[in-house]
Amino acid sequence: MIRVAAVGDIHMGRDSRGLFRPAFDTLHDCADLLLLAGDLTHHGKPDEAQIVADEVAGLPVPVVAVLGNHDHHDERPEEVTDILRSAGVTVLEGEGAVFQVGDALVGVAGTKGFGGGFAGRCGSEFGEPEMKSFVRRTRSCADGLRTALEQLEQAGCAFRIALTHFSPVPDTLAGEPLEIYPFLGSYLLAEAMDEAGADLAVHGHAHQGTEHGITSGGIRVRNVAQPVIRRAFAVYHLHEHPQEKGAKVA
Amino acid sequence: MATGPDAAAGKPGATARNTEYRIARLQERLVGEELAELGMRIEARGDTIHITGTAPTAEEREAILRLAAEELPDMPVRADIALADATAPDHSEEIS
To answer: B-chain residues within 8 Å CB-CB of A11?
Structure first.
C-alpha cells in the first residue's frame, strides 16, 4: 500500500504565503509523496512561484507537480518550473518520474493537459488555425502522458499515477456549468491513460466540480482542486492488485 | 409610440440583456485584474445577483465583493463565497 497526498489550485500569492505549510508539515505522518495538480500560482509570476517553492521546500516526502493554466498566464512557465525545481520539486510535462516507496517503485506521469471536451461533445482539428492548434495541443499533451505511463510500466513500477491539471473525464466536473466542460478537460487524456494503464488519475482545475470519477477503462479519477477537497490536501491509499498486475505483465 | 432618449431603455428585454452583459463584464474584471479569479459563479436570481465559489483568502473575497459593488451598484448582491480551508485532512480514502 502507498499513501498519496494531492492538492491542486492552491493559487498562491503574497496574501497566502505560509498558508499551507503547517498542514504540509504533517505529511511525514500520513503520506509517501505529495502531488501538486497545477494552478499553484495566481498569474505564473516568478515571485509567486518562489512563494510556492518556499511552501514545499524541505518537506520529508517527494513533491511532484504539473503546471496549470494560471502558471502559464505570465508566459514564463520555464521560469516557474526552474524556481520550483530549485526547491526540490519534480515538475513534469509529458514525462514521468520514479520514486522508491518502501519496497515498491511508484511512477508518476504528468502533463498539464488542455481542453477540448469529451467524446461526442468536443472540438476537432478542423477549420481555423487557432482551432486546429487548440486541439493539437491537447493531443500532444495526451501523447506525452501515454508515452510516460508506458515507460513507467517498462521501468517496473508497482503503482502508476497520472497527474494532470485539466480533467480526463466529465464525472469530476459535475457541479460546473455544462457549457464550459470543453474548457475544463479532454477525453484524449483519459484515452491515453486507459491505453497505457494507470492505478490512479489526479487532476485539478474544476473548482466547482466533484472529487470522484472514473475513466471508461476503470481508472479511478480524483479532482483535488482545493475548493473541491476543502482541505490542504487529500490522501489516497493505493492497494496493489497482484492478480491484475500479473495479468498485465503477461 | 415612445421616442427620445428614454425609448431604448424601455425596449422589451433591455433590462435582462443589460444584466447579462454586466455580469459578463464583472466576470471579465475578476479574471483580468489582479485577482485572476476564474472560479466564481455569478448568476442573476430575479433582481438579485448571486455569487458562489471559494476564495483563497479573506482579502480576495473582499476584493470580489468590492468589484461586484462597483460593476452592479444598483443591484443587491448575495454572496456565498467560502474561504479555502488549508487544514490537514483528518481522514484518507482507501482505493483498491
So the answer is: 36, 56
Chain A: residue nearest B60 by CA?
A15
Task: Judge: domain A2-249, CATH 3.60.21.10.
Answer: yes
What residue spans define the domains of chain A? 2-249
Give the chain B residue whose CA is nearest to the CA of A28. B88
Q: What is the grid cell recorded at A44? A: 505564473
Question: If you measure CA to CA, which chain A residue comes closest to B95?
Answer: A238
**Domain B15-83, CATH number (from 3.40.640.10, 3.40.50.720, 3.40.50.261, 3.30.1340.30):** 3.30.1340.30
DSSP designation for B46: T
Domain borders along chain B are: 15-83
Q: Is the pLDDT of residue A247 over 80?
A: no
Indicate yes or no: CB of A235 within 8 angstroms of CB of B95.
no
Contact list, B86 vs chain A (CB under 8 Å): 19-20, 22-23, 226, 231-232
Judging contacts by C-beta atoms under 8 Å, the chain A residues touching residue B96 are: 238-239, 241
Is residue A171 within 8 Å of residue A211, measured between CB atoms? Answer: no
- Tens of pLDDT, residue by residue over B14-53, are 565 588 899 999 999 999 877 888 889 999 998 899 999 9
pLDDT of residue B12: 59
* CB-nearest partner of A16 from B38, B56, B94: B56
Q: Say yes or no for a CB contact (<8 Å) between B95 and A3.
A: no
Cβ pair B85:A73 closer than 8 A: no
